[in-house]
Amino acid sequence: MMNFVTFLQLSIDGLLTGGIYVIVSIGLSLVFGVMHIVNFAHAEFLMLGMFIAWFAWSWLGLDPMLGAFLSLALVFVLGMGLQRWLIQPVQGASQMSQIFLTVGLMFMLENGALLLFGADFRSVSTPYQTMGMELLAIPGQGKVLVGLDKVLAFAMAALIGLAVWALVQFSRFGMAIRATAQDPMAAQLMGINTRRVYRIAFGLGVGLTAFGGAVILPYMSVFPTVGTQFAVLMFTAVVLGGLGNVAGAVLGGLLVGVVQSLSTLLLPIQMQNFALFVVFIAVLALRPQGLLSRRAA
Predict the structure, then answer these.
(1) Tens-digit pLDDT profile for residues 176-206
(2) What CA–CA distances, in Å, run from 50 to 3, 184, 274?
(3) Helices 194-215, 64-82: crossing angle, 10 deg rounding
(4) Where are the beta strands (DSSP E) in 96-192?
(5) DSSP 83-103
(6) Are the C-beta atoms of 218 and 126 separated by less than 8 Å?
(7) Average pLDDT for residues 83-104, to the nearest whole number?
């Protein structure tokens, strides 16, 4: 029989995992919200972020929590270049052209990583990797414990998420992003360089995902196809919250993490995504626009 401590333990584990889903989903939602392009290659930038953090740790001795900022910066620059040379030419084209381009980019990044880095699984070693924290102890029922590596990853994801939220809400550039997302033509008439906004928004979106990949490196190995296992989850989180809605991506990411974790109470761990997709289908049936988005008139 399930006790309260087990329920609490799984809920906290789910929230910590969901925090990582939030940061990678915000990047995907930001790109769609501003540019109206579904980037099927988005998860591969998580893989790139993990590889950059791994090389920073291996060559420079940089902890992945600090290497995450290097991942963010390098992938941000790469993202701006890809937007300029690959995405921009198809931005006004049909959705089919955009899908083919981003799917092709996904295969290019994945196979490029395989060619450059090989298929080996790589991991890091940090002092806090095996350390835990006791959150709660209930006599006769047990203790609630969390790994320090997951707490740090969650804290870093929350920190960068708040920084991006503040940038979008309170800066002049954030105002330009919101204006471009609402009406690109009107934004241009008001003197906003929308092409520059698109480049920075795309770079920021994929950079955030790379940051999320780097902070999970202490408890996950990196290999060229690691992004595949996150792709479906990040799309699920974004669609649950409402495609293009950043607040929805936060809710969707946390919901995905908690449902995944709590599902192990009833199902084998291999079927944890089954419960998630049941919730996903139910939400789509009742609110196809997502939990936080309004239905289009």
Answers:
(1) 998 998 899 999 998 999 999 999 999 999 9
(2) 37, 34, 27
(3) 150
(4) 132-138, 142-147
(5) IIIIIGGGTTS-HHHHHHHHH
(6) yes
(7) 90
